[in-house]
Amino acid sequence: MTAQDISPATISATGESATASPVIRREDPLGSIRAMAAAHNNWGRWGADDVLGTLNFIDAAKRIEAAALVKTGEAFSLSQPFDTNGPQKGWRRRTNPVHTMTDTGVDAERGNQGFPHGFGGADDVIAMPLQCSTQWDGLGHIFDQGKAWNGRAAGDVVTSEGDLVTGIETAAAKIVTRGVLLDVGRALGPEMGRSDGELPDGFAITPEHLQRTIELQGPSSRVGRGDIVVIRTGQHTRVRRDGWGDYAGGSAPGLSFSTAPWLHRSEIAGIATDTWGFEVRPNEFEGAFQPLHQIAIPNLGLFLGEMWDPDGLAEACAADGRYDFLLSAAPLPITGAVGSPVNPIAVR
Q1: Where is this region: Disordered (predicted)?
Q2: E strand or H helix that includes residue 290
Q3: For position 40, what pLDDT does the model report?
Q4: pLDDT at residue 26, rounded to an integer
Q5: Are 223 and 266 in contact (CB under 8 A)?
Q6: Which of 181, 209, 324, 328 lies at 20 to 30 Å from 345 by C-alpha?
Q7: pLDDT of res. 286
Q8: Cβ-based burial of 139 (10 A; exposed 0-12, middle 13-18, buried ≥19)
């Protein structure tokens, strides 16, 4: 099926296409995962010692290309807030940030801070899991059959001391490149009979859906080597309006397992979504947990962003038809971390 073949009749409310994907054998989850990993794998592509994975696709020429996209100087933060009202519910000890003031204006007024000549100040501290809100998954975050990125033994990479090889600090200066927004919710909505720009929970975004979105949005949506793709499903729009509900770990629109070949072939540097878990939930295999992660991170070396908020950017892109931009999305260089909070900035 080509992008041109997609029509309201071939896109269902659950994201199923008219033709079943040959890479999703629902009766054989493990076999499907192993076959996909064998067919789409970047181990050794940048040498045995590589720690960057697909970030290797970002080079100086790519950054120069991205800088030339700035026309108006508009800047958009693609981050959700980091506060106690966030989406987390405590699964696997993932909690929302706890922000505590250690010095305040009250202390300054009372003169009990110990500073001379009327000097006063405020200080604060935050405690949070590194993947509680807008974040990058690092290359040490997910393993496949006991293997980490580039075929290393998982236990040799991540220990109680952290990620000793591919810690997120290795990416600290790398993620400045061309970004491309694929507003799948808005683009495909009319063909699904929806006018809200939001994909329903459980909608599996296939390669055909991605190509159709690119076609509908126009030439500025082309996706190529070294780009970071930002997917808007509209789920974050929905939960911001209706409440978090089961946003963290519940049903969600997202990438189908069948997109793994597209992710590999496109040679993108990273991909981010406005959902908690990047891929469609419930997952497409009975009893599976995040099988596309299992391909993307340890086998492709692909950086995944989750819980991004592209809504403001999406409005601007829809208004003038320009869907590419300069993206700066540096992780915090937390030594040995397998993920990092991020405040991605899109500049148009």
Answers
A1: 1-21
A2: none
A3: 96
A4: 86
A5: yes
A6: 209
A7: 87
A8: buried
